[in-house]
Amino acid sequence: MNLQSLLECLPSYEYIGNENPDIKSVHMDSREVTKNSLFICVRGFTVDGHSFFNDAVKKGAAALIAEEQLDTDVPVIVVKDSKRAMALLANRFYGYPTMDMNLIGVTGTNGKTTTAHLIEKILTDARKTTGMIGTMYTRFAGVEHPVQNTTPESLPLQKTFSEMKEAGVDTAVMEVSSHALEMGRVHGCHYNVAVFTNLSQDHLDYHETMEKYLHAKGLLFAQLGNGYYPEQKNLAVLNADDEASKDLLKMTAAPVIQYGVNNDAEIKAVDLVFDEGGSRFTVKTPEESAPVRLNMVGKFSVYNALAAIAAVRMSGIPLKDVIASLEDISGVSGRVEKVTNDNDPFTILVDYAHTPDSLENVLETIKEFATGRVFTVVGCGGDRDRTKRPQMARVAEKLSDMVFLTSDNPRSEAPEQILEDMKAGMKNDRYSVIVDRKEAIERAVREAGSRDVILIAGKGHETYQIIAGQTFDFDDRIVAKQALEALTDDKS
Ligand SMILES: CC(=O)N[C@H]1[C@@H](OP(=O)(O)OP(=O)(O)OC[C@H]2O[C@@H](n3ccc(=O)[nH]c3=O)[C@H](O)[C@@H]2O)O[C@H](CO)[C@@H](O)[C@@H]1O[C@H](C)C(=O)N[C@@H](C)C(=O)N[C@H](CCC(=O)O)C(=O)O
Ligand SMILES: Nc1ncnc2c1ncn2[C@@H]1O[C@H](COP(=O)(O)OP(=O)(O)OP(=O)(O)O)[C@@H](O)[C@H]1O
Ligand SMILES: N[C@H](CCC[C@H](N)C(=O)O)C(=O)O
Ligand SMILES: [Mg+2]
């Protein structure tokens, strides 16, 4: 595509000159620039992409997008906000790929990854060609690609959509983070369905207040088509039991369907019975009712299942098939994942709870069925919301017999300081502070007795730990298994 044609998507820009090079690729990282490409200079949180324009030109960039005039021989197109411009350019360069597929976006504080997986499972069982973008990976055409963000920046995102389109993807399911919505990463994505899981405290380091955090989530619903045209099917799926839905309802012009357990909802679970392995309930839709056996524990899993049922309403998949798919799932990697076998002396669960609300939900579920003591190994991420630290510690203490406060991903922060912040939430002394996560897990395993449950929270599927900016191999499940084996070896 030639430069002038590419630029047609921008509402305004400044470009003195009339060169019109053919643009073969678009990049936001100078290290990835190839010949005859367009390089977009982005001012980041860490570095300013403008400082790499010379490198980009040396590597073959034929034109630059920047927020200021740059001293170079190639055309420089000056825009007000290069990140916003990038979203529009990426969409145009890759041929507006989301116009040619169904796109389901899932947002909310907790449950996005899980709900997205449930939706993906229902759709693939119904023989739809699906794509998935989220915290754990980007997955389509049978291949998983590693990711850096839950929702990627617009340029890699639109590239992925175009690859999905090429691979014949009919429906893409994606997690949409509040950061992505706020920063415009999903600007220009054509959503058919937007799903809201819930809202509770997280990310206040970035959003500052719960109102602004909710506003960011609302952007997904505001971005949804308005449903005025019958051929343009759109649906907003809201959680009737979450207060925030009242605001989200006002932010969308699309038709709305609500799901819930307590309040009135079109998709409602009634007669809930919980057990150690999951739950049984009856799901009621406007047309029919049907029994469900869910093999994922806790009330929060029921909400995720209801959200998934509502999200696939427009796909035409019969409810009985939807339920069969949900009943076939025993969980998502790193979410309430059992490390131990039935004949082990106690139970070890690895879970991705990294907010006060998710930790509370998972611990309440564990407590309901635990016949022994509950031990919790937990930390908080560095360079993230500090105010959630004492809250998470408090929740852990309230619902556990013993807490091992330890490091999560300290990132650039001092682990000891994060633990100090957590300690501020503790009201009694039923806890130990063990900075090294491996040691903390080993201690919990050594101290657990028969029938006890150890919850290792916060890192779930993660296979790494980031300490002082460096990434090390670390997997809670492997460390726990090794600790358990060491224990068995000691005893024999
Ligand atoms: C705070 C934040 O959102 N940071 C994101 C941002 O990084 P940054 O601003 O630090 O980038 P930077 O390193 O300053 O680089 C600026 C520009 O210079 C370019 N560059 C850089 C070096 C170089 O040699 N050449 C070059 O051209 C970079 O490609 C970039 O275009 O842009 C990067 C590329 O898109 C993101 O990967 C990165 O996410 C980081 C990893 C992150 O941790 N983000 C979190 C806060 C986040 O977004 N989380 C949400 C999930 C939240 C949830 O749980 O719901 C998410 O969607 O992931
Ligand atoms: N609907 C829910 N409500 C509250 N907590 C939940 C819900 N679903 C899952 N959880 C808890 O939250 C944890 C994270 O779940 P999941 O990974 O699905 O959320 P997420 O929204 O994708 O998180 P992230 O923001 O990191 O992408 C789970 O391990 C579980 O403890
Ligand atoms: N998407 C979340 C994941 C947090 C996972 C936790 N292990 C941590 O590192 O804080 C975030 O980026 O805030
Ligand atoms: Mg996720």
UniProtKB/TrEMBL annotation:
Pfam families: Mur_ligase, Mur_ligase_C, Mur_ligase_M. Residues 23-94 form the Mur ligase N-terminal catalytic domain. Keywords: ATP-binding, Cell cycle, Cell division, Cell shape, Cell wall biogenesis/degradation, Cytoplasm, Ligase, Magnesium, Nucleotide-binding, Peptidoglycan synthesis. ATP binds at G108, T109, N110, G111, K112, T113, T114. This is UDP-N-acetylmuramoyl-L-alanyl-D-glutamate--2,6-diaminopimelate ligase. The modification N6-carboxylysine is found at K217. GO terms for biological process: cell division; cell wall organization; peptidoglycan biosynthetic process; regulation of cell shape. NCBIfam families: murE, PRK00139.1-2, PRK00139.1-4. Residues 334-460 form the Mur ligase C-terminal domain. Carboxylation is probably crucial for Mg(2+) binding and, consequently, for the gamma-phosphate positioning of ATP. The gene is murE. It catalyses: UDP-N-acetyl-alpha-D-muramoyl-L-alanyl-D-glutamate + meso-2,6-diaminopimelate + ATP = UDP-N-acetyl-alpha-D-muramoyl-L-alanyl-gamma-D-glutamyl-meso-2,6-diaminopimelate + ADP + phosphate + H(+). The keyword Methyltransferase does not apply. InterPro entries: Folylpolyglutamate_synth_CS (IPR018109), Mur-like_cat_sf (IPR036565), Mur_ligase_C (IPR004101), Mur_ligase_C_dom_sf (IPR036615), Mur_ligase_cen (IPR013221), Mur_ligase_N (IPR000713), MurE/MurF_N (IPR035911), UDP-N-AcMur-Glu-dNH2Pim_ligase (IPR005761). It comes from Alteribacter keqinensis. Meso-2,6-diaminopimelate binds at R384, D408, N409, P410, R411, G458, E462. Its EC number is 6.3.2.13.
